[in-house]
Amino acid sequence: xxxxxxxxxxxxxxxxxxxxGRDGTRVRSGLYRxxxxxxxTDADRAKLDALNISVVADLRRPRERDNEPSSWGDGFRVLxxxxxxxxxxxxxxxxxxxxxxxxxxxxxxxxxxxxxPNEKGNQEVFTAGLRELATHGPDxxxxxxxxxxxxxxxxxxxxxxxxxxxxxxDIYDDYLMTNTAVDYDLLVPLxxxxxxxxxxxxxxxxxxxxFLGVKAEYLDEAFDEIGSAESYVTDVLGxxxxxxxxxxxxxxxx
Length: 254
Description:
- The relative contact order is 0.18.
- The chain has one domain (about 15-250): Alpha-Beta Complex (Protein-Tyrosine Phosphatase, Chain A), CATH 3.90.190.10.
- It has a five-stranded mixed beta sheet with strand order 1-2-5-3-4, sandwiched between helices.
- By secondary structure, the protein is α/β, with parallel strands linked by helices.
- It has helices spanning about 40-50, 60-65, 90-95, 100-115, 120-135, 150-165, 170-175, 180, 185-200, 205-210, 215-225, 230-235, 240-250; strands spanning about 15, 30-35, 55-60, 75-80, 140-145.
């Protein structure tokens, strides 16, 4: 069965649980990752309700949340950070002023993955999300998302799956699934039009596909920056050994 769940107004929504974990165990179900929820339809809400999601980890910055707000109602706990204030997010600044050649975009994406683990806002939501996963009920759904559900979200899911003992192949397969979960033939023209209207720039299609997709080398950059997931979550995010043990235990299917 496909990991990708189809919605009308949500892109890149999929499971990131149910992989093989440590010592032949199974990573629990009810774990989801996604792009933003600004364009949710009534039909989408009904499908989300059926997933019993109770916690939402929103990795977007305040300015992104203001531009494309979500409308979670009662019954949801939303984890987010206001650290960056309303400063222009780096990816938006790049779209406005950066080198939008295919090589220029790839260079920006590599630098992005070296930056993501060190941003205080990301660290706050990573920490809160992992601590939530240490105690989250087995029958409750958990979703983590950013704008496109591929970079910040991809790093969080890679950390969680690493702690659960998933193999490197599964971690990278889950990360790279964005490239097949998203309909780029539909998305590229939409984003191209938005960039042209917002920033008055014409971007080559090849560059757009590089910007909207993912490559294994990007995630490599992040792990080269942080070392192991275990050292990062303890030394940088500040989780205790007991908390890490609880995350591992609670990420395993019972």
